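Homework-ish question, so no full write-ups if that breaks the rules, but can someone show me the predicted structure for this set?
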Amino acid sequence: MKNILQRLIQAFGPSGREEEIRSVLREELAGSGLELKTDVLGNLIATKAGRGGRLMIAAHMDEIGLLVTHIDDKGFLRFTPIGGQDPKNLLGSRVIFANGIMGTIGGEKIKDAKEFKLEKLYIDIGATAAAEAKELVAIGSMAVFVPHFTCQGNRIIGKSLDNRAGCALLLAVIRDLPPVDYQIDFVFSVQEEVGLRGARTAAYHLEPHLALAVDVTRTGDTPESGPMAVELGGGPAIKVKDTSLISHPRVRGLLEKAAKERDIPFQLEVLLRGGTDAGSIHLSRAGVPSGVISIPTRYVHSPAEMIDYRDLTRAATLLSAFMQQDQLFMAP
Ligand code: CO
Ligand code: ZN
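A: Not a homework solution, just the prediction itself:
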């Protein structure tokens, strides 16, 4: 899974511009035997046909980024965030555009820390004038953090582990698909970071009877991080609640049962701010019982996020065990 994860991280894919990451995922799914299709918004759907019910499993393939809004006379670029961006994480970080142009993020001089906002930051691509900058980028061009990937013991440090880690997990489960009769639609969704958008149309189209999202979550195990009962290395997290979803008790119960039966260590997750694709999916049509498997992640939405590889492999085991639970599709 490490090699696949590294490959996924290299791919460009801010929300709304997922072409490159989608084509990498398509290549990885080529020999899977699943039916592949890309829908109108760009979601990549890999279907295992079956009978008796439909399970949707979603992992978003998009990543946060920056979109150029203005180019000044000297060639400095102003930007608006694509997804949640914290100015603290941006200053001094390097970004890359779809065409390979790189920039560093600088900031205006400020007198008061309160003034430190995204509007005070700019991207410097080394241009000497507006005309030169405009040959390299345009209004509306998107950039993402420069890819990197480090494996150190059990820990992995990388860019866009949110949510390339979830995508790698789905690929691993697809590669070793348990023998089940029902239909499974694996959805590599678009535009999660700007409001869980791709999952919304995918769920409407697929009409699942049951759904899971696989995504990262925050942890409470770093200095002064604020209380949160999730830590790196403690096992996959089973979501109880975030701002987009209260997990369906039956789905959450099945996840906990699967973990206990297989002796997979797990953590219960209450995320105070943030959501996942399950937030959109569970409100689709007449409602879909939904839950989430989360990968504990430090420094979410920074240029260098960190996970524990064991959490990732155990999350894959948990997903596979969940898929093999009896009575998945019982009435609510
Ligand atoms: Co995110
Ligand atoms: Zn995410």
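Now go work out the reasoning yourself. Hint: The longest helix spans residues 161-175.
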